[in-house]
What does this fold into?
Amino acid sequence: MTVARRYLAPVAVIVLLLGLWEVAAQWDWIANALNLQDFLVPAPSDIATSLWEDRSLLLDDTWVTLREVLLGFLCALAAGLAFAIVLHLSDTLRRAFYPLLVASQTIPPVAIAPILVVWFGFGLGPKVLLIALVCFFPVTVNTLDGLRSVDPQLITMMRTLGASRGQILGRVELPSALPFFFSGTKIAIAVAVIGAVFAEWAGASSGLGHQILIASSNLLTARMFAAITLLSVMAIVLFALVSLIERRVITWDSRGVTRA
Amino acid sequence: MLTRLREGTPDAAREGRAGEGSANAAGATVRIEAVAQSFGDLRAIERIDLEADAGEVVGLVGPSGCGKTTLLELMAGLREPDSGTIAVGERTEPSERLDRCAYMPQRDLLLPWLSALDNAALALRVAGTPRREARDRAGEHFERLGLAGFEAVRPDELSGGMRQRVAFLRTLMAGRPVLLLDEPFASLDAITRAEMQSWLAGVLGPDRHTVLLVTHDVEEALYLSDRVVVLSSRPAMVADRIEIPAPRWADRAGAVTSPQFAELKQRALRSLAEGSR
It folds into this structure.
Protein backbone atom coordinates (compact mmCIF):
# COMPACT_ATOMS: atom_id res chain seq x y z
CA MET A 1 0.00 0.00 0.00
CA THR A 2 1.40 3.40 -0.89
CA VAL A 3 1.90 6.12 1.69
CA ALA A 4 -0.84 8.23 0.14
CA ARG A 5 -3.43 5.47 0.35
CA ARG A 6 -2.44 4.59 3.92
CA TYR A 7 -3.10 8.14 5.13
CA LEU A 8 -6.10 8.83 2.90
CA ALA A 9 -8.79 7.40 5.21
CA PRO A 10 -7.68 9.01 8.51
CA VAL A 11 -7.09 12.38 6.84
CA ALA A 12 -10.50 12.20 5.18
CA VAL A 13 -12.17 11.53 8.55
CA ILE A 14 -10.41 14.48 10.19
CA VAL A 15 -11.24 16.84 7.30
CA LEU A 16 -14.86 15.70 7.35
CA LEU A 17 -15.20 16.27 11.13
CA LEU A 18 -13.55 19.71 10.90
CA GLY A 19 -15.88 20.59 8.05
CA LEU A 20 -18.96 19.55 10.03
CA TRP A 21 -17.72 21.54 13.01
CA GLU A 22 -17.07 24.58 10.82
CA VAL A 23 -20.57 24.49 9.33
CA ALA A 24 -22.25 23.83 12.71
CA ALA A 25 -20.33 26.67 14.37
CA GLN A 26 -20.74 29.20 11.57
CA TRP A 27 -24.51 28.67 11.42
CA ASP A 28 -24.68 28.78 15.25
CA TRP A 29 -26.19 25.29 15.51
CA ILE A 30 -23.98 24.37 18.47
CA ALA A 31 -24.44 27.68 20.28
CA ASN A 32 -28.22 27.48 19.90
CA ALA A 33 -28.34 23.87 21.01
CA LEU A 34 -26.27 24.67 24.12
CA ASN A 35 -28.11 27.96 24.62
CA LEU A 36 -24.87 29.99 24.45
CA GLN A 37 -23.69 33.28 23.03
CA ASP A 38 -22.35 32.50 19.54
CA PHE A 39 -18.82 33.89 20.25
CA LEU A 40 -18.34 31.17 22.90
CA VAL A 41 -18.36 28.47 20.20
CA PRO A 42 -15.45 29.10 17.84
CA ALA A 43 -15.31 27.50 14.42
CA PRO A 44 -12.07 25.81 13.25
CA SER A 45 -11.44 28.89 11.11
CA ASP A 46 -11.67 31.11 14.23
CA ILE A 47 -9.14 28.85 15.98
CA ALA A 48 -6.83 29.10 12.97
CA THR A 49 -7.17 32.88 13.06
CA SER A 50 -6.31 32.90 16.78
CA LEU A 51 -3.30 30.63 16.14
CA TRP A 52 -2.03 33.14 13.58
CA GLU A 53 -2.85 36.39 15.36
CA ASP A 54 -1.68 35.27 18.83
CA ARG A 55 1.33 33.45 17.39
CA SER A 56 4.06 35.23 19.31
CA LEU A 57 2.20 34.79 22.61
CA LEU A 58 1.36 31.14 21.91
CA LEU A 59 4.84 30.36 20.65
CA ASP A 60 6.40 31.67 23.87
CA ASP A 61 4.02 29.52 25.89
CA THR A 62 4.77 26.51 23.69
CA TRP A 63 8.50 26.80 24.36
CA VAL A 64 7.88 27.07 28.11
CA THR A 65 5.71 23.95 28.16
CA LEU A 66 7.98 22.04 25.78
CA ARG A 67 10.97 22.73 28.02
CA GLU A 68 9.08 21.48 31.10
CA VAL A 69 7.92 18.37 29.25
CA LEU A 70 11.37 17.50 27.89
CA LEU A 71 13.16 18.08 31.20
CA GLY A 72 10.62 16.09 33.21
CA PHE A 73 10.50 13.33 30.64
CA LEU A 74 14.28 12.97 30.40
CA CYS A 75 14.65 12.95 34.21
CA ALA A 76 12.01 10.20 34.40
CA LEU A 77 13.75 8.25 31.65
CA ALA A 78 17.10 8.26 33.44
CA ALA A 79 15.63 7.63 36.89
CA GLY A 80 13.19 4.98 35.62
CA LEU A 81 15.89 3.07 33.77
CA ALA A 82 18.26 3.18 36.74
CA PHE A 83 15.53 2.18 39.19
CA ALA A 84 14.38 -0.70 36.96
CA ILE A 85 17.94 -2.05 36.78
CA VAL A 86 18.39 -1.80 40.56
CA LEU A 87 15.07 -3.56 41.21
CA HIS A 88 15.97 -6.22 38.64
CA LEU A 89 19.33 -6.96 40.23
CA SER A 90 18.03 -7.19 43.80
CA ASP A 91 15.10 -9.47 44.65
CA THR A 92 14.91 -7.93 48.11
CA LEU A 93 14.69 -4.37 46.84
CA ARG A 94 12.15 -5.38 44.19
CA ARG A 95 9.88 -7.04 46.76
CA ALA A 96 10.27 -4.01 49.02
CA PHE A 97 9.64 -1.28 46.45
CA TYR A 98 7.29 -2.78 43.87
CA PRO A 99 4.06 -2.32 45.90
CA LEU A 100 5.08 1.27 46.62
CA LEU A 101 5.75 1.84 42.94
CA VAL A 102 2.25 0.64 42.03
CA ALA A 103 0.66 2.55 44.90
CA SER A 104 2.37 5.75 43.80
CA GLN A 105 0.59 5.47 40.47
CA THR A 106 -2.84 5.54 42.15
CA ILE A 107 -2.29 9.11 43.39
CA PRO A 108 -3.82 11.47 40.81
CA PRO A 109 -1.30 14.03 39.53
CA VAL A 110 -3.99 16.74 39.76
CA ALA A 111 -3.99 16.19 43.51
CA ILE A 112 -0.24 16.44 44.05
CA ALA A 113 0.29 19.42 41.75
CA PRO A 114 -0.91 22.04 44.31
CA ILE A 115 1.20 20.40 47.05
CA LEU A 116 4.29 20.66 44.87
CA VAL A 117 3.51 24.35 44.27
CA VAL A 118 3.16 24.94 48.03
CA TRP A 119 6.47 23.23 48.68
CA PHE A 120 8.56 24.33 45.71
CA GLY A 121 6.94 27.55 44.51
CA PHE A 122 5.93 28.71 41.04
CA GLY A 123 9.17 28.06 39.19
CA LEU A 124 10.23 25.37 36.74
CA GLY A 125 11.09 22.86 39.51
CA PRO A 126 7.62 21.68 40.58
CA LYS A 127 6.50 21.33 36.93
CA VAL A 128 9.47 19.19 36.00
CA LEU A 129 8.96 17.14 39.15
CA LEU A 130 5.27 16.48 38.46
CA ILE A 131 5.94 15.52 34.83
CA ALA A 132 8.79 13.26 35.95
CA LEU A 133 6.48 11.64 38.50
CA VAL A 134 3.82 10.76 35.92
CA CYS A 135 6.43 9.53 33.41
CA PHE A 136 8.43 7.51 35.93
CA PHE A 137 5.92 4.69 36.42
CA PRO A 138 5.41 3.52 32.81
CA VAL A 139 9.16 3.68 32.12
CA THR A 140 10.16 1.78 35.26
CA VAL A 141 7.47 -0.90 35.17
CA ASN A 142 7.86 -1.64 31.47
CA THR A 143 11.65 -1.78 31.62
CA LEU A 144 11.53 -4.00 34.69
CA ASP A 145 9.07 -6.35 32.95
CA GLY A 146 11.41 -6.45 29.97
CA LEU A 147 14.44 -7.27 32.08
CA ARG A 148 12.56 -10.01 33.88
CA SER A 149 11.11 -11.66 30.78
CA VAL A 150 14.45 -12.55 29.20
CA ASP A 151 14.65 -16.22 28.23
CA PRO A 152 16.42 -17.93 31.18
CA GLN A 153 18.20 -20.24 28.73
CA LEU A 154 19.92 -17.21 27.21
CA ILE A 155 21.29 -16.39 30.64
CA THR A 156 22.49 -19.98 31.13
CA MET A 157 24.15 -19.78 27.71
CA MET A 158 25.94 -16.58 28.73
CA ARG A 159 27.05 -18.19 31.99
CA THR A 160 28.60 -21.10 30.13
CA LEU A 161 30.52 -18.58 28.02
CA GLY A 162 31.96 -17.20 31.25
CA ALA A 163 29.91 -13.99 31.36
CA SER A 164 29.71 -12.04 34.62
CA ARG A 165 26.45 -10.67 36.04
CA GLY A 166 27.23 -7.25 34.56
CA GLN A 167 28.00 -8.71 31.14
CA ILE A 168 24.75 -10.67 31.14
CA LEU A 169 22.94 -7.44 31.96
CA GLY A 170 24.73 -5.39 29.32
CA ARG A 171 24.89 -7.89 26.49
CA VAL A 172 21.60 -9.78 26.86
CA GLU A 173 19.13 -8.36 29.36
CA LEU A 174 19.28 -4.67 28.46
CA PRO A 175 19.12 -5.16 24.67
CA SER A 176 16.19 -7.57 24.98
CA ALA A 177 14.41 -5.19 27.38
CA LEU A 178 14.73 -2.33 24.87
CA PRO A 179 11.36 -2.93 23.14
CA PHE A 180 9.68 -2.86 26.57
CA PHE A 181 11.58 0.27 27.51
CA PHE A 182 10.33 1.97 24.35
CA SER A 183 6.70 0.95 25.03
CA GLY A 184 7.02 2.59 28.45
CA THR A 185 8.69 5.63 26.92
CA LYS A 186 5.87 6.11 24.40
CA ILE A 187 3.25 6.02 27.17
CA ALA A 188 5.41 8.41 29.22
CA ILE A 189 5.76 11.03 26.48
CA ALA A 190 1.98 11.06 25.96
CA VAL A 191 1.20 11.54 29.66
CA ALA A 192 4.04 14.06 30.09
CA VAL A 193 2.03 16.72 28.22
CA ILE A 194 -1.03 16.03 30.38
CA GLY A 195 1.17 16.32 33.47
CA ALA A 196 2.50 19.67 32.25
CA VAL A 197 -1.04 21.09 31.98
CA PHE A 198 -1.90 19.99 35.53
CA ALA A 199 1.35 21.42 36.84
CA GLU A 200 0.72 24.76 35.16
CA TRP A 201 -2.87 24.90 36.38
CA ALA A 202 -1.66 24.53 39.96
CA GLY A 203 0.41 27.69 39.64
CA ALA A 204 2.35 29.17 36.75
CA SER A 205 2.93 32.48 34.99
CA SER A 206 3.45 31.08 31.49
CA GLY A 207 3.00 27.94 29.42
CA LEU A 208 0.16 26.56 27.29
CA GLY A 209 -1.71 25.17 30.32
CA HIS A 210 -1.49 28.57 31.96
CA GLN A 211 -2.66 30.19 28.71
CA ILE A 212 -5.78 27.97 28.71
CA LEU A 213 -6.67 29.22 32.21
CA ILE A 214 -6.14 32.88 31.30
CA ALA A 215 -8.06 32.60 28.03
CA SER A 216 -10.85 30.78 29.84
CA SER A 217 -11.31 33.51 32.44
CA ASN A 218 -11.43 36.07 29.60
CA LEU A 219 -13.86 33.92 27.59
CA LEU A 220 -11.36 33.79 24.72
CA THR A 221 -12.54 30.36 23.59
CA ALA A 222 -10.77 30.47 20.23
CA ARG A 223 -7.45 31.03 21.99
CA MET A 224 -8.21 28.18 24.41
CA PHE A 225 -8.74 25.85 21.48
CA ALA A 226 -5.57 27.19 19.85
CA ALA A 227 -3.55 26.31 22.99
CA ILE A 228 -5.19 22.88 23.17
CA THR A 229 -4.33 22.33 19.50
CA LEU A 230 -0.69 23.20 20.16
CA LEU A 231 -0.54 20.85 23.20
CA SER A 232 -1.95 18.05 21.10
CA VAL A 233 0.45 18.71 18.22
CA MET A 234 3.34 18.77 20.72
CA ALA A 235 2.34 15.37 22.12
CA ILE A 236 1.94 13.88 18.64
CA VAL A 237 5.29 15.21 17.41
CA LEU A 238 7.12 13.96 20.54
CA PHE A 239 5.43 10.56 20.25
CA ALA A 240 6.43 10.35 16.59
CA LEU A 241 10.02 11.27 17.48
CA VAL A 242 10.21 8.51 20.09
CA SER A 243 8.72 6.02 17.60
CA LEU A 244 11.30 7.09 15.02
CA ILE A 245 14.16 6.58 17.49
CA GLU A 246 12.68 3.20 18.42
CA ARG A 247 12.66 2.08 14.79
CA ARG A 248 16.24 3.26 14.36
CA VAL A 249 17.42 1.41 17.49
CA ILE A 250 15.45 -1.83 17.31
CA THR A 251 16.26 -3.17 13.89
CA TRP A 252 15.84 -6.82 14.77
CA ASP A 253 12.76 -8.99 15.16
CA SER A 254 12.21 -8.57 18.90
CA ARG A 255 9.69 -11.37 19.34
CA GLY A 256 12.20 -14.18 19.60
CA VAL A 257 14.15 -13.20 22.69
CA THR A 258 11.65 -13.17 25.48
CA ARG A 259 9.99 -16.10 27.13
CA ALA A 260 6.77 -17.02 25.38
CA MET B 1 48.72 -11.98 18.49
CA LEU B 2 50.90 -14.42 20.38
CA THR B 3 47.90 -16.68 20.92
CA ARG B 4 47.14 -16.72 17.22
CA LEU B 5 50.68 -17.61 16.25
CA ARG B 6 50.66 -20.44 18.74
CA GLU B 7 47.36 -21.69 17.41
CA GLY B 8 48.96 -22.11 14.02
CA THR B 9 51.39 -24.85 15.01
CA PRO B 10 50.25 -28.38 15.87
CA ASP B 11 52.33 -28.43 19.06
CA ALA B 12 50.73 -25.26 20.27
CA ALA B 13 47.29 -26.65 19.53
CA ARG B 14 48.05 -29.65 21.69
CA GLU B 15 49.10 -27.37 24.52
CA GLY B 16 46.08 -25.08 24.08
CA ARG B 17 44.62 -24.17 27.42
CA ALA B 18 41.05 -23.40 28.41
CA GLY B 19 40.05 -19.80 28.68
CA GLU B 20 42.53 -18.36 26.25
CA GLY B 21 39.94 -18.23 23.53
CA SER B 22 41.58 -20.69 21.18
CA ALA B 23 39.09 -22.58 19.07
CA ASN B 24 41.52 -25.49 18.81
CA ALA B 25 41.92 -26.18 22.53
CA ALA B 26 43.06 -29.73 23.08
CA GLY B 27 40.60 -32.09 24.74
CA ALA B 28 40.45 -32.98 28.40
CA THR B 29 39.20 -36.14 30.04
CA VAL B 30 35.74 -36.27 31.52
CA ARG B 31 35.14 -38.72 34.35
CA ILE B 32 31.76 -39.26 35.96
CA GLU B 33 31.58 -41.62 38.93
CA ALA B 34 28.42 -42.84 40.63
CA VAL B 35 26.49 -39.68 39.89
CA ALA B 36 22.88 -39.49 41.07
CA GLN B 37 20.45 -36.61 40.88
CA SER B 38 16.88 -36.08 42.03
CA PHE B 39 14.48 -33.19 41.67
CA GLY B 40 12.25 -33.37 44.72
CA ASP B 41 10.68 -36.84 44.58
CA LEU B 42 11.65 -37.30 40.96
CA ARG B 43 14.76 -39.44 40.54
CA ALA B 44 16.29 -38.15 37.32
CA ILE B 45 19.59 -40.03 37.36
CA GLU B 46 19.99 -43.29 39.30
CA ARG B 47 23.70 -43.94 39.09
CA ILE B 48 25.87 -43.20 36.14
CA ASP B 49 29.53 -43.93 35.50
CA LEU B 50 30.91 -42.44 32.35
CA GLU B 51 34.29 -41.67 30.91
CA ALA B 52 35.49 -39.77 27.90
CA ASP B 53 39.17 -39.64 27.02
CA ALA B 54 40.77 -36.49 25.73
CA GLY B 55 39.82 -35.97 22.10
CA GLU B 56 37.12 -38.62 22.15
CA VAL B 57 33.57 -38.14 20.86
CA VAL B 58 31.05 -39.87 23.12
CA GLY B 59 27.43 -40.08 22.06
CA LEU B 60 24.73 -40.22 24.73
CA VAL B 61 21.48 -41.75 23.53
CA GLY B 62 18.37 -42.21 25.57
CA PRO B 63 14.61 -41.87 25.54
CA SER B 64 13.31 -38.33 25.88
CA GLY B 65 13.05 -37.04 29.42
CA CYS B 66 15.69 -39.49 30.70
CA GLY B 67 17.90 -36.79 32.14
CA LYS B 68 20.41 -36.35 29.30
CA THR B 69 20.27 -32.57 29.50
CA THR B 70 20.58 -32.74 33.29
CA LEU B 71 23.70 -34.86 32.85
CA LEU B 72 25.26 -32.21 30.57
CA GLU B 73 24.35 -29.43 33.00
CA LEU B 74 26.01 -31.42 35.77
CA MET B 75 29.18 -31.86 33.71
CA ALA B 76 29.24 -28.17 32.82
CA GLY B 77 29.11 -27.29 36.51
CA LEU B 78 25.77 -25.50 36.12
CA ARG B 79 24.54 -27.66 38.99
CA GLU B 80 26.03 -30.07 41.50
CA PRO B 81 24.89 -33.72 41.70
CA ASP B 82 23.23 -35.09 44.85
CA SER B 83 25.99 -37.68 45.06
CA GLY B 84 28.97 -38.90 43.06
CA THR B 85 31.86 -36.99 41.53
CA ILE B 86 32.42 -35.35 38.18
CA ALA B 87 35.89 -34.44 37.00
CA VAL B 88 36.68 -32.48 33.87
CA GLY B 89 40.40 -32.43 33.14
CA GLU B 90 40.99 -33.75 36.69
CA ARG B 91 39.14 -30.78 38.22
CA THR B 92 35.98 -31.38 40.25
CA GLU B 93 34.95 -27.88 41.44
CA PRO B 94 31.80 -26.70 39.54
CA SER B 95 33.35 -23.36 38.61
CA GLU B 96 36.46 -25.10 37.29
CA ARG B 97 34.30 -27.50 35.29
CA LEU B 98 32.43 -24.50 33.86
CA ASP B 99 35.79 -23.07 32.78
CA ARG B 100 36.58 -26.24 30.85
CA CYS B 101 33.25 -26.96 29.19
CA ALA B 102 31.51 -25.20 26.34
CA TYR B 103 27.83 -26.00 26.28
CA MET B 104 25.74 -25.86 23.14
CA PRO B 105 22.05 -25.89 24.09
CA GLN B 106 19.25 -27.48 22.04
CA ARG B 107 17.98 -24.12 20.84
CA ASP B 108 20.54 -22.01 19.04
CA LEU B 109 19.86 -19.00 21.36
CA LEU B 110 21.52 -16.56 18.98
CA LEU B 111 21.16 -12.92 19.96
CA PRO B 112 18.89 -11.36 17.30
CA TRP B 113 20.50 -7.92 17.51
CA LEU B 114 23.97 -9.24 16.65
CA SER B 115 25.25 -10.33 13.24
CA ALA B 116 26.30 -13.95 12.70
CA LEU B 117 29.92 -12.86 13.14
CA ASP B 118 29.27 -11.02 16.41
CA ASN B 119 27.24 -13.95 17.72
CA ALA B 120 30.12 -16.29 16.93
CA ALA B 121 32.57 -13.92 18.61
CA LEU B 122 30.43 -13.53 21.76
CA ALA B 123 32.66 -15.70 23.98
CA LEU B 124 35.74 -13.70 22.99
CA ARG B 125 33.97 -10.41 23.67
CA VAL B 126 32.87 -11.70 27.08
CA ALA B 127 36.48 -12.65 27.78
CA GLY B 128 37.49 -9.05 27.11
CA THR B 129 38.93 -9.34 23.59
CA PRO B 130 38.61 -6.06 21.66
CA ARG B 131 35.85 -6.12 19.07
CA ARG B 132 38.08 -6.07 15.98
CA GLU B 133 40.32 -8.85 17.16
CA ALA B 134 37.32 -10.94 18.28
CA ARG B 135 35.69 -10.53 14.86
CA ASP B 136 38.92 -11.41 13.07
CA ARG B 137 39.42 -14.55 15.09
CA ALA B 138 35.82 -15.75 14.79
CA GLY B 139 35.80 -14.80 11.11
CA GLU B 140 38.76 -17.10 10.40
CA HIS B 141 36.46 -20.10 10.97
CA PHE B 142 33.58 -18.99 8.74
CA GLU B 143 35.06 -20.54 5.61
CA ARG B 144 35.78 -23.91 7.23
CA LEU B 145 32.30 -24.11 8.78
CA GLY B 146 30.56 -23.26 5.53
CA LEU B 147 29.48 -19.84 6.75
CA ALA B 148 31.53 -17.66 4.39
CA GLY B 149 29.55 -14.68 3.15
CA PHE B 150 27.09 -14.76 6.05
CA GLU B 151 29.23 -12.70 8.47
CA ALA B 152 27.00 -9.61 8.49
CA VAL B 153 23.66 -11.44 8.36
CA ARG B 154 21.33 -11.29 11.34
CA PRO B 155 20.08 -14.61 12.80
CA ASP B 156 16.45 -14.13 11.72
CA GLU B 157 17.60 -14.14 8.10
CA LEU B 158 19.54 -17.41 8.48
CA SER B 159 18.12 -20.89 7.87
CA GLY B 160 17.86 -23.35 10.77
CA GLY B 161 20.99 -25.20 9.66
CA MET B 162 23.02 -22.02 9.34
CA ARG B 163 21.87 -20.85 12.76
CA GLN B 164 23.09 -24.14 14.27
CA ARG B 165 26.46 -23.64 12.58
CA VAL B 166 26.79 -20.18 14.08
CA ALA B 167 25.74 -21.52 17.50
CA PHE B 168 28.36 -24.27 17.14
CA LEU B 169 31.06 -21.76 16.24
CA ARG B 170 30.05 -19.62 19.22
CA THR B 171 30.52 -22.71 21.40
CA LEU B 172 33.83 -23.51 19.73
CA MET B 173 35.14 -19.96 20.19
CA ALA B 174 34.76 -20.29 23.95
CA GLY B 175 38.07 -22.15 23.63
CA ARG B 176 37.18 -24.87 26.11
CA PRO B 177 38.64 -28.38 25.85
CA VAL B 178 35.27 -30.10 26.26
CA LEU B 179 32.25 -29.52 24.02
CA LEU B 180 28.85 -30.49 25.39
CA LEU B 181 26.38 -30.67 22.52
CA ASP B 182 22.75 -31.05 23.59
CA GLU B 183 20.70 -32.41 20.68
CA PRO B 184 22.25 -29.84 18.38
CA PHE B 185 20.18 -30.84 15.34
CA ALA B 186 16.90 -31.86 16.99
CA SER B 187 15.00 -28.87 15.66
CA LEU B 188 16.02 -29.43 12.02
CA ASP B 189 14.17 -31.35 9.32
CA ALA B 190 15.53 -34.79 8.39
CA ILE B 191 17.35 -33.68 5.22
CA THR B 192 19.03 -30.69 6.87
CA ARG B 193 19.88 -32.84 9.88
CA ALA B 194 21.66 -35.41 7.69
CA GLU B 195 23.54 -32.56 6.01
CA MET B 196 24.55 -31.10 9.37
CA GLN B 197 25.71 -34.50 10.62
CA SER B 198 28.10 -34.84 7.68
CA TRP B 199 29.17 -31.27 8.31
CA LEU B 200 29.84 -31.89 12.02
CA ALA B 201 31.75 -35.11 11.19
CA GLY B 202 33.94 -33.06 8.87
CA VAL B 203 34.48 -30.38 11.49
CA LEU B 204 35.19 -32.79 14.35
CA GLY B 205 37.48 -34.96 12.21
CA PRO B 206 40.68 -32.88 12.51
CA ASP B 207 39.53 -31.36 15.81
CA ARG B 208 40.99 -32.33 19.15
CA HIS B 209 38.10 -31.49 21.45
CA THR B 210 36.53 -33.97 23.80
CA VAL B 211 32.88 -34.03 22.73
CA LEU B 212 29.81 -35.27 24.56
CA LEU B 213 26.96 -35.44 22.11
CA VAL B 214 23.47 -35.90 23.52
CA THR B 215 20.88 -37.04 21.02
CA HIS B 216 17.76 -39.19 20.77
CA ASP B 217 18.76 -40.15 17.26
CA VAL B 218 20.66 -43.47 17.35
CA GLU B 219 21.95 -43.06 13.80
CA GLU B 220 23.35 -39.61 14.62
CA ALA B 221 25.14 -40.93 17.69
CA LEU B 222 26.64 -43.96 15.90
CA TYR B 223 27.73 -41.92 12.91
CA LEU B 224 29.43 -39.12 14.84
CA SER B 225 30.87 -40.85 17.91
CA ASP B 226 33.83 -43.00 18.87
CA ARG B 227 31.68 -44.56 21.56
CA VAL B 228 27.97 -44.55 22.22
CA VAL B 229 26.47 -44.80 25.68
CA VAL B 230 22.83 -45.88 25.77
CA LEU B 231 20.86 -44.60 28.75
CA SER B 232 17.69 -46.13 30.18
CA SER B 233 14.52 -44.19 30.78
CA ARG B 234 14.16 -42.24 34.01
CA PRO B 235 15.80 -42.75 36.45
CA ALA B 236 18.69 -42.87 33.99
CA MET B 237 21.25 -45.67 34.14
CA VAL B 238 23.76 -46.86 31.56
CA ALA B 239 22.00 -49.55 29.53
CA ASP B 240 24.81 -50.27 27.08
CA ARG B 241 28.19 -49.03 25.89
CA ILE B 242 28.94 -49.50 22.23
CA GLU B 243 32.46 -49.06 20.88
CA ILE B 244 32.48 -47.99 17.27
CA PRO B 245 35.16 -50.12 15.59
CA ALA B 246 35.69 -47.77 12.63
CA PRO B 247 35.03 -44.34 13.99
CA ARG B 248 34.71 -41.18 11.90
CA TRP B 249 33.13 -42.69 8.83
CA ALA B 250 33.89 -40.93 5.61
CA ASP B 251 30.62 -40.39 3.81
CA ARG B 252 27.37 -40.47 5.70
CA ALA B 253 25.17 -42.13 3.11
CA GLY B 254 27.71 -44.94 2.67
CA ALA B 255 28.25 -45.32 6.37
CA VAL B 256 24.68 -45.49 7.61
CA THR B 257 23.73 -48.07 4.99
CA SER B 258 26.70 -50.39 5.54
CA PRO B 259 26.05 -53.82 7.12
CA GLN B 260 28.45 -53.04 9.97
CA PHE B 261 26.52 -49.90 10.79
CA ALA B 262 23.21 -51.75 10.60
CA GLU B 263 24.51 -54.28 13.14
CA LEU B 264 25.53 -51.54 15.56
CA LYS B 265 22.23 -49.78 15.04
CA GLN B 266 20.32 -52.96 15.80
CA ARG B 267 22.26 -53.42 19.02
CA ALA B 268 21.75 -49.82 20.07
CA LEU B 269 18.01 -49.92 19.32
CA ARG B 270 17.64 -53.18 21.29
CA SER B 271 19.48 -51.70 24.28
CA LEU B 272 17.33 -48.61 24.04
CA ALA B 273 14.16 -50.69 23.96
CA GLU B 274 15.30 -52.80 26.93
CA GLY B 275 16.32 -49.71 28.87
CA SER B 276 12.95 -48.11 28.24
CA ARG B 277 11.01 -50.89 29.90
Notes: Residues 2-108+178-275 of chain B form a domain with the Rossmann fold fold (CATH 3.40.50.300).
